[in-house]
Structures are given as C-alpha cells and as structure tokens.
Amino acid sequence: MKLLLGVLFLWLLSSEGNGDDLEENGKLEALRRLQYSCEPTAFPETPSSSVHALRPADIKTVTAIGSFQRTPGSVEDLLQSTGKSLLEVSVEILAALISSFNPSVLHLSPLPDTMGATSDGQARDLLNQAEEIVELMKEDQMIDFQNDWKLITVFFSAETPCSSCASTQLKNCTLENLEELKTVLDFLYKKVPRAFVNLVDSTELTTASLACQDYSNASNPGRNQCSCVGEPSTLDDNIRRPFYQDAWEKLLKSERFDQRDDFTVVLQPSLQERNLLLRLGTDGWTTTLKTQVETLEDYIYMAVGLWNNMMQPVGQKQPYGVTKIVQVQCPSQENPYLFTYRNSNYSSSLKTSNTKEASQERSYGTNIPCNDRDPSDTVPTSVHNLKPADIRVIAALGDSITAANGAASKPHDVLDVLVQYRGLSWSVGGNENISTVTTLANILREFNPSLEGYSTGTGTQNSANAALNQAVTGARVEDVPEQVRKLVDRMKNDTRINFQTDWKLITLFIGGNNLCKFCEDPVHHSPENYTYNLQIALDLLHKEVPRAYVNLVTILSIASLRELHAWKNNSCPKLLMRILCPCVITPKENSNELKKLIYFNKQYQERTRQLVESGRYDTKDDFTVVMQPFMTNMEMPKTQEGQPDDSYFAPDCFHFSQKAHSQVARALWNNMLEPIGEKTDNQHMEDEIVLKCPVTAEPFLRTYRNSNYTYPNQTPNYGSQLPCEDRSPSSPPATSVHSLKPADVKIIAALGDSLTAGTGIASDTLGDLATQYRGLSWSIGGDESLENVTTLPNIFREFNVTITGYSTGTGSENDSNAFLNQAVPGAEAEHLPAQARNLLRLMKTDDRIDFSADWKLITLHIGANDLCNYCKDPVHYSAGNFIKRIQETLDILHKEVPKALVSLVDVVDVLPLRQLFVDTRVQCPTYLADFLCSCVFTGEDNSENLTMVKEATRAYQLGIQRLIESGRYDTHENFTVVIQPFLQNVKIPLGQDGHPDVSYFSPDCFHPSQKGHSQLARALWNAVLQPVGQKADSFDFTADIALGCPAQNKPFLGTYKNSNYTPVEPTREPIENWGSELSCPEQSPSSHVPTSVHELRPADIRVVGALGDSLTTAVGAKTPDLQTDWRGLSWSIGGDETLEIQATLPNILKKFNPNLFGFSTGSSKETAGFNVAERNATARNMPAQARELVELMRSSSKINFKKDWKLITVLVGGSDLCQYCLDKEANSVQKYIKHLQDTLDIFYEELPRVFINMVEMLELSGLRQVTASSSGCALTAKKVCPCFLNPEENSPELQEIKRVNRDFQAGALQLINSDRYEKREDFAVVMQPFFRNTLLPMDSTSKPDLSFFAADCFHFSVRGYAEMAMALWNNMLEPVGEKQTYNNFTHDRSKLKCPNPEKPFLFTRKNSGFGNSDFSLEKTVPSVPYWAVIVAALGGLLVGSLLVCVVTRRRSKKLQCKTDIEKNIKTTPL
C-alpha cells in the first residue's frame, strides 16, 4: 500500500456525520499529502495477551475523552460548526490507520452531549466522560468488552481558572488537577480490561482546564473554589505546565498502571502549536470555508502526529502540532508493537544532584563590621551627602527576581517557584533580621531600625505585606512605568511616610524577561526600546519623587544560564528552562541567534550606562540615579570541581535561591559604597562577600559628585586646527596639475560606496544605519566648519572659501544636497563607471561650476564590498575584473574631465575589522557578520575564505599600482591620478583594556563613526600633500594625526611628476628548484601499529601506490619533452631527489618514515614501483590498474601485505572528458562513476590497511584560456582535448561538456560520501578537493604563466607537479568539511603543514566528526558549477596556480536581512 488516501478517505466517508461537503473536502486535501508505505498485514489469529506486545492489528476499538471548553468564536467552536470535534477527528484518523492492519476495527466517538465541550463554557467532568465511554463500550454489541483490545486517548489540560489567584492557592489548585486526572486513570485501570491509554497534553488547544471548576455534582464534595480575577501570569503558566508533564511522567514510570499485563498508560508528547489560533485572524474569528477546511486539516495532522509517536519508543518521541506531517510511520519489523515504558526499556531521565541538599533551615545571615551607624547630625538636603542611616524608606521595582519567586523553595519543588517570597528579596525583603536573612533592607535596618517600606512573607505586589516592593512577576521594562505610578501612590498614601521629607532608596532591576523573549520580537525588545522605556520610568521618579537615591542595577550577562542548562549532572528542569527563557537557552553555540542575544545584552548594559551618564537625573540636589554594575560581567557560580553550582538557584534553575539573594544583597550594598569609576562589575557569587563600611572621610552613599567623577562628554568636538600660514593660491593661476596648490582647487567631488556616502556616521542605533550622513563624510562632507567637523572639504575651505561640490546634511546621491558626492551605499567596482557618468553630467550642467576652467579634486575609493563578497564568486570579483572596472572609470574621467586631480584611495584591508566580530568582549552585532562581510567576518581563523580575501586584497592593490604607474593617465598636464595608499594596512583601535575601541565605529562596528571619519579625513589630507614614494601606507585610528601643511619649497598636491617618482618593477630572485622545507616537531609513528585507519599517523605509512593517467606518470615534467613518463617526479608517487629539491608526496612522507616503499624513480617502467598509472588512461582502465596494484603488493617481498599501512592516490577523468564528445556512451557520467566504484570495491574487498586519496578531478575549461594565450601549443592541446578546446564560446557543445564535467565531480563525491566504504575499520576513502577553486597563474603581461605547464599547455611542468604535491599533503591534514578547496600556487618553501598535535592523524570522515549520514552531498556539492576562474591582473608578483579553474557558483546576490531587526535597520554594506 503506497498511499493512505484510498483506505483512509473511504473510511472517513463511511463514518458518521460525513455528509458535510466542507468537512470531507478538508479531509481530502489533508489526506492527499499523507504518504503511507505500510504493507497490510494479516489479522492475527490470536491477539496479543500482553499490552507490551500489542500490535496495531490487535486493536478492535478506538475511542477518546477530553476536556475542551467551547466558547463562542473559539477553535473548538469553529470546528464544531463543521460537525466534528477534535476528539472525533482523532478517533476517526487513528481508527482509519489501524484499519489497514485490522479492517474490523471500530471507532467509538463520545455522544454529542459528552464530547467534552459545552456551549455554556463549562468544561465537562473528565471522570463523567470516562464513566460514559465505558458504559458505551459495554453496551455495544460489536465489542467484546472483556477480550477486545481498546485504544483510549485521554486529552488533558494544564490550564486552570486559578491563574491569577495567590501563588499558594494556585499551587494547591494545580495539585488537585493532578489528583483528578489520577482518579480518571485509576477508574479506567480498575474498570477496563485490555486497554492501551494515550495521555496527551492539549493545553495549547484549550482555554479551560480540568481543575478548580465549580462542580455541583456529588462526586466533588468540598472542592476548592476559585473566585479570583485578573490576568493569568506567564510565569505561572510556564511553570505549571512542565510541572504537570513532569509529575505525570514520574507517576507513569513508577509503574502505577503497569501492575497488570493487559493495561498501560503512555504519556505522549504535548501538542505544541499556537499557530492554529493565530491563523484565524486578529479582528475576530473568520469562519470562511477556507478557515474551516484548514482547521480540520490541522486536526488531521495532529492525529497523524499522535500515531507516529505511538510508533516511537518512549524517550524518542517528538512534540508535534499542526505542521504538515506527510509521512505516516509504520511498525518496524523488529518492533511491530505500540511502544510502552516497559518495551522501550526506558529508564528515568530525571537527574538528581550529586551534592547533598542544603538544609532549608540554614542561616543566611551576615555580620556587619561597621562601628559608625549614626545618621547625619541634621537631615541632609543633598543626595550627595546621604549616609545609610539617613535612609527612611526603602522600595523596589522589577520582575520576579525582585519578587523573589522560589527564593525559599525546597530542591526539586518546581511548583513552589510560583510562590513569591518577598520577605527574602535581595533589594527590599525584611524577614527576620540581618543575623538570619541578608537583604539590603535588613542591612539598612542595622543603621536605621525605623526603616519603612520593606516587604515580608509571601504574596503578590498587591498584598499588604508586599509594602513598597512593587516588582511584578513576569514584568518587562515596558511595565516599569506603571509600577512607578503604583509605588508613588503607595508612598503618598502611607501615613508612616513623610513623602516630602523622608529620604528614599529605590532599587530598580529589570530586563531579564525582555532578553528571554527578544528573539520573538527583536524590534520590540531592541536596546533602543529598552532604554526608552527605562527612561520613561526614571523620568517619572525624577519628576514625582523628592529626596530619592535610585539604584539602577544593570542587567546581568544572561547567557551564562546556558551553562546550567548544558550541565547534565544537576536537577534542573531543562524543558522548563527552555520555556521560561527560550531565546537564551535554545540557540546553538556560535549561532547568529546567540550572538544577537549577547549583543542585545551588552547594549542593554551600555545604553543604561549612557542614560545615567547623560546627566539627565542630576539636575536636582535631592535626586540621583546611580548605576550599580556588579552583575554586568558576573559569571555562573561554580562548585569546587568547576561545574555550574545550582544551589544558587531556585528549583527552576532560573530564579535565585535564598543563597543567591543573600550574595547579591551583599554585592549591591558594597557597590553602593564604592565610588563611581571604581565599582565592582564582575562579582563572583561563590566568593565570600564581606560587607563594606562607609569610609570616614566620605561616609555617604556614593554618587557621581561625591566620587569626584566626571561624566564623559556627550557632545565631543571633532574639529581640527590647521597650522598653515600660507593659504594663498598660485599666482599666476596654475596651468599644470603638477603645480596645483590647495587654494587652487575650486571643485571637490567623490565616488565610492557607503564609506563615502556617510552611512551611519552619526547613528547611535542600528535602526538609524540607513541614514547617509553625507555632510560628515571624510572625503566630501561640508557640514559646519573645520572648527567642529573635520572633513577634506572643510580643510580645503580654509584655503579657498569659495570651494564647492561638497555634500551637506543627509540623504541619497540623488538629493540636491549630495551635490558632487555620487557615492552609493553597497557599490562595488562595477558600479563606478555609472557614478562617473553621473558626476560628469552634474559638473557640466551646474551653473556654479566652470567646467573647463575650474580645478577639480575627485576622491575615489572602492573595493571593500568586492572583497566582502569575493569568496562567493571569485570569478566576478577577480583582480582582473576589478582592475578592468577601475580602468573604465578612470578612462571616462581622463577623457571627459579637464583640470582634474583624481585622488585614488587604495583598497582598504578589511581583514583587521574581523577582530571586532571575534572578540567576545566587544559590543558589536556579531549576528550581522554574515550580512555585513561574510567572507571576512565569519568562519574560523586561517580559513580558506580569509586566505582568498587576503590574496585578493593584495592583488587589487598591486593591480591598481600597476595601472596607475603605467603612465596611462599622465598624457597631458591638466589631469593625473595619484594613489593614496594609507588604507593598505589598517590598525584597529584598542581601548585601555586591550580590546577594540568601538567608539570609532557606528553601531554595526563596520562603518566608521564621526570620530573615525575625522581621523580618515586627517590621514587623507596628509596623504594628498605627501610626495609619491613617501606617502604613508598604514592607518592607525588612535594616532594623534596633526594636519600637515604644504612644503614651502614645493607647496603642491603630490603627484608622480612633481615627486620625481620613477616606478620600480619588483624583481624576484631566481628559483633553483621546486623543493620545500618541512620541520614538524612530532614526526614519530604511533606507539604501536594502529588497527584503525582513523588513528593513522603519517609515520605509520609504510607503502605508497598510485593509479591514474598521464598526470600521475608526470608527462611533461621536463620541458619540452612530451614523450617521457617522468614517474620519479610524479606529484603523488615520485621519489626522485629529496623534498628540499623536489616536492612530491613520497618525499614529504619520507621525512616521517625513511623506510617508505613503493614510490617511483627515474623514467622507466622497471623503477615505477607501485605507480601503475598509464598515459591516456580513462576511468574504464582503473579496475585493471587496481587489480595490478593489488597483485604487485601481494607478491612483493619488500612489504607485509596484511600488516603494512598503505596510502594510494587516485586521480582520473581528464581523458574521459577530453574524449567525451567522440563517444558519449562510453564516456558517460554513469560509467565513469561505475568504473570508480568497481575500482574502490576491489581495494575494499582485497586490500588490508589502506588509506585512499581520491583527488577531485579538475575542471578543464580553464585550458581554453591557457591555450588561447600561446599559439605554439594551441594546436597540440586541441588534439589532446578536442571536446573542451574545439567548441565555440557559449556554444551548446561547450555548455554540455561543462555540465558533464561537473556531473563527474558531483557523482564521485556522492560515491565517496556514501556509506559504502565505512564498515571496515582499516579502510577509508577521502576526497581531497584542492583542485576545486584555484588561481590561474599570470605573468607580468597579465597572461597565463606557462612556466607551470608542459609544452602542450595541457600537462604540468615540474613546477606545477610540485605545487600539486604540496596541496595534496595539506589536504590530507585538514578535517573533512574544512579542507582547502583551492590551491595557492605561490612559491613558498615553508607552506607545508604539520600534523595537528592534538589529533596527529590523516583525516577521515570519522575522525573529522562526521557520522555515516552527517556529510550530505547537498551540503558539499552546489547545484551549479562550483570552480572559480580567478584571473589575477599581475604577473610574477601574484600567486601562481593551476591551469584549470572554473566558476564556483553563480554570482551571489546580496544577502537579505534574516531577522526582523535586520529588516528594520536596513543596514548597508560599504
């Protein structure tokens, strides 16, 4: 049976109430998607006698009970309008599924008036339903009640109408809930034989519960009544439901219902889906046909999810909801029964602490060592002279941490966390006294016994004993203003408080709940909104409350909670932690979600500091707000063994225990006495915290004033002083660009990207990054004057006040105030020509510009975006393409613009900026790294992408140097281009703490701030004046850059001509050979010969061998000879000379094992060793070569065939592709893969102890560029490889052969990454992908460097073979998934890697951390061609490379923002 649709739909058509077209259409659409592959089974002659061996075919009756309150407009009410309830749909679907195993199965739905939902909103008693369904089964003539197996599903809910009652009543209420459900199951256990009971938590789908209901029947005498009103608490809801699940799991695992062999109860995962409610609309319930159909579909999917979980062992079941489950699971042949606790072999997963529970009677008191506890002689009038004893009133605002939820709860009593132990609260609790309970209030009572406002006992914020503790459980920062209003009302109305004259201490701590849910709405919980709401609350206090000292405690580093969740050996309720704080607990390590959390957390802290230090709350002498930072960098408390210490937490492992409340009370007190600027910001909770005393000289609570602390200047001046005395223009006016003085410049303009457009210069939030502050731009901004804004135009205006062209204000390049600032955010080199044309149009048409007569300074800077995207498409962003686009732009300006000096600021080295995104102490939005500059800011250090960008940066810079120094733009006296090289080497600014100083950057840590732009402008001005050859080639953000002045003897802007600069072509020392150096600290073999290939060290290899074609026989190694097989020089198997003279894989291995055997020497067949490769060989020859190699090894007396470890390298496919078009059948992809498989199968079956290098075949289309560059070898190469070299460009034939090339690669990778060769411990095949992305070597004329190739331009020279050997070796030492997929063919004798000291093995899939199914082809093989042609524009100066390179993937589109906040900020890359 391949589809469930037929049987299931026919079943539903035959069920009761099926006449409604709407209902059936809904079922049909859902059922069409269900894939069902279970084979029908014969009905068993003898049903199982044990519920633990119960098969679906054994079940005769299916039914369900449940409690759902149906209110007008509810989901259940909507579904009832279609004639069905959730109970009925579930029963019918389960029965239909079972019918394929037992066609005679019956489904028994509750009667219409016993479906568990009533229109009056009162949920029916679940016990009544159970009694009624039992009677129905007994009365049904088709059911043998005693002997038939029954499947009963019980839906229950953790919801209770007592949610807003006092926490103690709510706790009792929930416990009664459990008792009622236990009564129902006890009844079924007693009354129903042969039953399998599913217990399902349906809280997400209901609005009523089983408990605390006002039952009037006699079965519920003495029931607690709930008469409370109010909104339910989120904390109550989150704690109650996991407690419910946990309590039931404990009960069921206790085997209470497993005493009989014919009865069991299994707790199935809860329905976890709120979207069912959300899809119905926000403006009232929509009862359209579509909505009813979708609702019915959702219930069908939920029922199928329940069935699938019945097929899964306990402990492996998954939560489910209305997600579109399309695969219906079947009973397995090994376990063809429904899973129970017993047949799942399920053991309790509940962890118990390894440490003994601390007695709850333990004293958490403190000794106060202070002798002076007297108040001031007279009541102070200034908050800056406030002594502890002067405090008359204490109060607190915040959330459940200040409400002290669970502070005195016993270990494991999670439900007790609902109790608010306000008398123990760290900042305001007043239970007992300081000798037994340490709180801030109890400390202050030792100074002033008449203190008022502290809370005692338990209760909510509305209880009388809460006093001035107005913290609210579950509160977020937006709720604090309302808390302030209530606090002010309470203080004003309390007759014990003189509101006007009493000094008040108010502690505010808030933000945890915002961070815990920030990922659900990042905009709502943004740092900006956090600070905004905090400001509203503090503004209210400032306005309304006289004589107040406000403690603003910064939010802690909440990510440390993850350590507690991750630690296995504790009693923390992990599910509850994920529910309470999902945005902290659930993100994966190093994920963008976690990075965003950390960034938000740090920004909450930083913006809190900025708000306080703004001085906003220091305008009155009787009021201040002081930030207490002791939690800012507080880490998870640890045990002596270094593990997270859960004794500091309540049973939910989220709230503080009394132990923690005591510690933070001590830390807060000490913070209050520490001067601002010297406060502790990383209190260690596990340390002994001794209470400090006020110092005699300053016995006050510390404020900014009595700490002699000066807040940082909130409005810094970014102006500069210009010391130049001679500011005159040339006289007579300059006629040559080489005698141009600063005052001669009348027009200033700029082209570029977001750096020049001014993105985010004055932004203080991520949301403002879309703003282009063009008036502040380093090279073209003209806001205000040099006195307060340093930009290049403002400097030039000091020489010529009539200069024009600069931009002002904000806006895009199309706005009139942008003027000649035509830079565009996100621009790349390809966009520059268009910018140049727009600039040309503006200059020619503007009345303020005399286009022919005015001297123009045009600043051009581009390249960062090209580099940031380089790894995505190295072809498009190649150095050759980059220089071509720069040249096109400069050609336009050179041709069209008279009297112009183009200041070409060199390509910036973006790699140092990476430090901002990898330093965890820096407050940067690391989650935006992939969006801002993914090729640089993401990935590991020394990754392939970083190497590519580093090489591309140098290639860009050298390409620009070659272009400009060619003299192309020095053909007449009124135009030149000058490179300003100061951004070639950027030094990231560091603060006093040694970490990057983000004040030089906008909030995204990518674009410079005004502080950064000011420094760039100063550096640019100085560069413009410096002679060519003496210009600075580095930039330090923090340097004290003084503005220079024109030289007296040559007061001109520096050009090549007036600097007397002569370009010098770098020379290279002659290379004597193509050897390499290798000096690894550890070159010894394993202590004993390994039995596993996954523990194989290089020195363990005793034998080498190779298969392949003419590349492995080393044809062409010695030019111009193409007739000889130079096997001794073969990259993978040659052993001529030594590594220092010739790099080959055996010569490298001989450094580890001098007794290596099997390598080739010389050029004869007799000395070929185990090199069985043959020229012109194709894949079809590989099995024969494999058999030959096996026999050679087996018959050799020089090796131990069974015990010696062997390394075999295989590379083949070039000949197959070159001849493909001549015989497509013989050279097809399928046959290529089949031949490889046959080859590997031979080795797998016959060869012991072997590691096989399968070198990924190269992509041959790059040959076309090589052969096109040399007429001497073109004819020969076309004969060797006609199918690649003969087709015309863009022809169908060429496209076909490229596709086949890629299919060869993809097919081979799929074969290697299958499980086919994974079952032997002494065998591994590893794909070595160094050929995937390579750099085509160019010579000084920007043509392919033929020194890498043989005379036929097809094979390699000895130089090329040496580079292949080194690349292969390095690949072997790189983990699978992290292997370098391109080859840097720069001649470097020291680039060979050494084995990793921690894992000194040749890497396989297994020792790289991949399981058999982890390394999917989808992740490793792109859906488009994936090699890259990177044509460098420079000759021998540039990295060399290989002949073959093709496109890695289609040109990447700009990344879109992935989260709500990213969509809102519209961040623009440089």
Question: How would you characterize this protein structure?
Answer:
This protein is an alpha/beta fold. It contains 40 helices and 24 strands. α7 runs antiparallel to α16. It is flat. The N terminus and C terminus are likely disordered.
Mean pLDDT: 83
> What is the β-strand count?
24
Shape type: flat
Helix content: 25-40%
End-to-end CA span: 58 Å
The portion of residues forming beta strands comes to 5-15%
The major pleated sheet works out as: 5 strands, parallel
Strand numbers in spatial order across the main sheet: 3-2-4-5-6
Taking Cα atoms only, what radius of gyration do you get, to the nearest Å?
39 Å
H/I helix tally: 40
Class derived from helix and strand content: alpha/beta
**Low-confidence spans:** 1-30, 69-82, 113-123, 207-232, 273-290, 348-361, 1412-1470
